[in-house]
Structures are given as structure tokens and as C-alpha cells.
């Protein structure tokens, strides 16, 4: 969330009680609140915020210390350790060492991201892990389908085997009296571990997107995509009540609602940070340690999707990338033969939550802050990862992706994109016409200028 602004007055590490708030768009002398504020870049925030500036030992980079420890480990491995005569073991160990050295370099040298809690080093590690993941995807992209599947055996022997087809939409009866498994066995069989996973997943997505409309649109559109693609992926076939009641209303809807309530709480609470050793009581120290795992400050997102054509296209692009990332998970599991509960998919989802939170913050700042001229580093990597995953799905699963859409699905999406295009043109017609006129005038001026400087011939 950016570097704090300079200029807040402090004395002995503490903020004056009578400091004038000169941040978040409040530069007026009559705006007097009892806390000094060293703000984020977001000029629309008005939360109470202060930081006494305490910089403890654990907040320093320790670049030389980390380098010396790393070199000591490498000296031990290179000069004293006896190498095993096992090529597979040594290859795996060498790759892990390469990744570890890269993570150490990134954690000490890469610039901080927008988040400061629980520690900037955590978010630097997430950025480095996302780069490693992108490099793995690039490597897979250059393999054959068979080799890509078999390479996963190096992670676990059970991988690289075809998965049984599974569909959740064969029997959609909620009540089956006299059934040996019970009258509500159809419903109970679908109440598995994925229900709490969906709920907590959408709670976390609400903390990332921070917008009711964007959450609702992506939730509904993903269920529509499941309807549209169930002829390609069997596990997209679900009962109607599983789609709209279990997923949209209960898991996604309730999770997103609680997530937005959490955003409201975090957006309204004051943030007053003091160094641990500046707090006199043990209870205060304990609360300070617990608060380390809460946000440093909070930025509420107002995407303003319909204020301009550029922002409308940008917000639609964010929703599209969000949906693509979700679809990639299911297609990659199906194409690379990875079972749904496998730890690879769980690690991927956890990594996406971490890097997605930073990427959305950087994207919002790039869109909303006129002083931000550079697309964020984490947002750049996330865009590359989603695009590479799509390419892997297309290359390795073309026989699946190329299965023709049913006629009614094709008709629906033609109607959808036609309506979207018509509404966009109707809503932003003045901007579109103005852009054409500007380009036309520039072209005319360029032609006139070229004609004026063209040499004359007798």
C-alpha cells in the first residue's frame, strides 16, 4: 500500500496529539484529529493512522548476514559433504538449492511490495515463488504432453496416471425415500470438503477484490461457464441446486458477504502502530504481536467501472483474468492428470491468494493513482502466469478444448458478447467518437505537415 508520506511530526518516537492531518486528501487546517497520519498513496482514505517509526532488528534486510550464511552452507556442501551416488536424488537436491538461493536473493534485494504486515519479507518471498512458478510453467510449455505428465512423477509417484471421470449431476433428486443410503443421500454426498473450501475461498477473494458487484458478477459468470463447459470437463456437470444454491448463494454468496463485512471493519478501524518495546504492559505487548498479522492499513477499492471507457475495459479485463485463473485450475488438473485434493493444487491456490492480493492492490493503484506510472511487479507476474497456464491448457489439451460447443451454448455467448458490446458502445459512445476524432485529426495534421515539408519538383 505504498510508502508513507513524509512530514508527520514526531517527538521521541511518538506522534503529537495536536498534529494536523495532512493526508488522504485532507490538507485543510481546520481538519484536526487526535492522531498524526503517515498515509498510503490512496487519497480517499480517512482512517486514523499513526506509526511511531520504530525499526527493530527483524525489519532490517541483513543482506551481508544472509550472504555469509548461504556461503557457509555452500562451502560445507562443496568441500566437506560426501555426495551420494544417486543421480535422481542429486538432481532434485540441486534444483531445490537453486530455488533456495534465488529466494534468498529476492528476499534481500527485491524492492518491497505494497503490504507491510506481517512482514515485507513474506510478500517478497511470495513474489519470488510466483516467479519460480512461472519458470516451471515455461519449462512445461516446451515439453510434450506425455513428458509434462511424467515429469510430475518426480514430485510424487502416484502422479502421471489417467484420472477416472467424475460427474456430480447424474442424480439431482434431493429426497429419495427408501434409498439404502438414506433419503437425503444425494445431498449429503455433495457435502464434502469442497464446501468449506469454497466458503473460505470466497471470503478471501472478497478481501482481495473488495467490491460486491465484482464478486457477484464473477461468481455468477463462473457458474455459467461451468454450464457452458460441462461437455469438455465432466466434473463441471452439477445439479441445478448445486450450482445456484450450494455454490452461488451459500458458499460463494455467504463467504463473499462475510468477506465484505471484514473489509468494512478493517476499513473503519484505526491503525496505531508502536514498537513492541515501547509498550509498557505485557498484555499490550501480546496484543501488538497478534496485531502484526493484521493489515498495516487498509485501502477500500472503488473501481468506478462505468466512469470511463478505459476503466470499464480494465475492470472487465480484471474479471476475465479472475475467471481464467479459476478455469485454468480445472483444466490443468484434467489435462495433466492431477487429482483434485492433491497438494500441488492446494499450494497453487494458496500462492494465488497471496500474489492475487498484492496484484489487485498494484492494479488498483495503477488505475486510480495519477502519480503511479509503472505497472506493479506482482501484477506483471500474475498476468504472465495466467497467460502461460492458458497456453499450457491449449497446447496439451487441444483435443479437449476443441470439442465443439452445443448450439444453445454458442447462441448464449453470442448473445452475451453482443449485448456487452452494444451496451459498451451505447454507454461510452461520446468517448469512442472523441477518440476517433482525435486520431483522425492527428492523422490529418500529420499528412498536412508531411505535404508542407515535401520537396517541390518543377
Chain-wise SSE layout:
Layout: E1 10-11, E2 14-15, E3 49-51, H1 63-80, H2 87-109, H3 120-141, H4 145-151, H5 185-189, H6 194-209, H7 212-229, H8 240-268, E4 271-273, H9 282-291, H10 309-335, H11 343-368, H12 377-396, H13 398-401, H14 407-427, H15 429-453
Parallel strand pairs: 3-4
Antiparallel strand pairs: 1-2
Helix pairs in contact: 1-2, 2-3, 3-11, 3-12, 6-8, 6-11, 7-8, 7-10, 10-12, 11-12
Notes on the structure:
By secondary structure, the protein is mainly alpha-helical. Among the domains are: 50 residues; 233 residues, no CATH class. Helix content is 59%, strand content 2%. It is built from 15 helices and 4 strands. The strands form 2 sheets. A two-stranded antiparallel sheet has the order 1-2. The termini are far apart. The N terminus and C terminus are likely disordered. One of its GO terms (biological process) is phosphatidylserine biosynthetic process. Keywords: Endoplasmic reticulum, Lipid biosynthesis, Lipid metabolism, Membrane, Phospholipid biosynthesis, Phospholipid metabolism, Transferase, Transmembrane, Transmembrane helix.
Individual helix count: 15
Helix content: 55-70%
Ranges where pLDDT stays below 50 over 5 or more residues in a row are 1-46, 446-458
Instruction: Provide the structure class.
Output: mainly alpha
Question: How much is the radius of gyration in Å?
Answer: 27 Å
The string of secondary-structure elements, in order, is EEEHHHHHHHHEHHHHHHH
* Proportion in β-strands: under 5%
**Terminus-to-terminus distance:** 66 Å
Number of strands: 4
Adjacency order of strands in the biggest sheet = 1-2
Shape: globular
The average pLDDT is 82
What about the largest sheet? 2 strands, antiparallel
Amino acid at each position: 500500500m505504498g510508502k508513507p508520506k513524509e512530514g508527520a511530526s514526531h517527538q521521541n518516537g511518538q506522534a503529537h496529539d495536536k498534529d494536523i492531518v495532512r493526508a488522504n486528501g485532507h490538507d485543510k487546517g481546520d481538519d484536526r484529529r487526535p492522531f498524526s497520519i503517515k498515509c498510503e498513496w490512496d487519497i480517499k482514505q480517512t482512517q486514523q493512522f499513526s506509526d511511531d517509526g520504530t525499526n527493530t532488528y527483524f525489519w532490517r534486510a541483513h543482506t551481508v548476514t544472509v550472504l555469509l550464511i548461504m556461503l557457509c552452507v555452500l562451502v560445507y556442501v562443496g568441500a566437506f559433504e560426501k555426495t551420494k551416488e544417486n543421480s535422481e536424488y542429486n538432481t532434485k537436491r540441486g534444483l531445490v538449492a537453486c530455488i533456495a538461493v534465488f529466494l534468498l536473493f529476492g528476499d534481500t534485494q527485491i524492492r518491497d511490495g505494497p503490504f507491510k504486515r506481517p512482514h515485507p519479507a513474506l510478500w517478497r518471498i511470495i513474489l519470488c515463488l510466483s516467479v519460480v512458478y512461472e519458470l516451471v510453467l515455461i519449462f512445461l510449455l516446451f515439453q510434450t504432453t506425455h513428458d509434462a505428465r511424467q515429469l510430475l512423477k518426480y514430485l510424487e509417484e502416484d502422479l502421471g496416471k489417467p484420472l477416472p471421470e467424475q460427474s456430480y449431476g447424474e442424480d439431482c433428486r434431493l429426497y429419495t425415500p427408501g434409498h439404502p443410503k438414506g433419503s437425503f443421500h444425494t445431498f449429503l454426498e455433495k457435502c464434502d470438503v469442497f464446501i468449506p473450501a469454497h466458503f473460505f475461498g470466497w471470503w478471501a477473494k472478497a478481501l482481495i477484490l473488495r467490491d460486491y458487484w465484482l464478486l457477484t458478477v464473477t461468481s455468477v459468470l463462473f457458474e455459467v461457464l461451468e454450464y457452458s463447459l460441462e461437455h469438455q470437463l465432466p466434473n463441471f456437470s452439477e445439479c441445478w441446486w448445486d450450482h445456484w444454491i450450494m455454490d452461488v448463494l451459500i458458499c460463494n454468496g455467504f463467504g463473499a458477504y462475510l468477506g465484505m463485512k471484514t473489509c468494512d471493519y478493517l476499513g473503519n478501524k484505526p491503525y496505531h502502530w508502536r514498537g513492541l518495546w515501547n509498550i509498557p504492559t505485557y498484555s499490550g505487548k501480546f496484543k501488538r504481536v497478534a496485531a502484526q498479522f493484521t493489515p498495516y492499513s487498509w485501502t477500500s477499492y472503488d473501481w468506478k467501472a462505468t466512469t470511463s471507457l478505459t476503466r470499464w475495459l480494465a475492470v472487465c479485463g480484471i474479471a476475465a483474468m479472475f475467471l481464467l485463473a479459476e478455469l485454468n485450475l480445472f483444466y490443468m488438473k484434467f489435462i495433466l492428470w492431477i487429482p483434485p485434493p492433491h497438494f500441488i493444487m492446494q499450494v497453487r491456490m494458496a500462492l494465488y491468494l497471496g500474489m492475487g492480493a498484492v496484484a489487485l492492490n498494484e492494479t488498483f493503484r495503477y488505475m486510480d493513482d495519477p502519480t503511479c506510472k509503472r505497472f506493479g511487479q506482482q501484477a506483471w507476474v500474475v498476468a504472465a502466469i495466467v497467460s502461460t497456464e492458458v497456453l499450457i491448457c491449449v497446447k496439451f489439451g487441444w483435443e479437449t478444448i476443441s470439442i465443439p460447443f452445443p448450439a444453445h451454448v454458442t447462441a448464449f455467448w453470442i448473445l452475451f458478447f453482443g449485448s456487452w458490446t452494444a451496451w459498451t458502445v451505447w454507454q461510452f459512445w461520446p468517448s469512442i467518437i472523441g477518440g476517433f476524432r482525435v486520431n483522425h485529426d492527428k492523422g490529418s495534421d500529420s499528412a498536412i505537415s508531411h505535404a508542407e515539408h515535401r520537396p517541390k519538383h518543377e
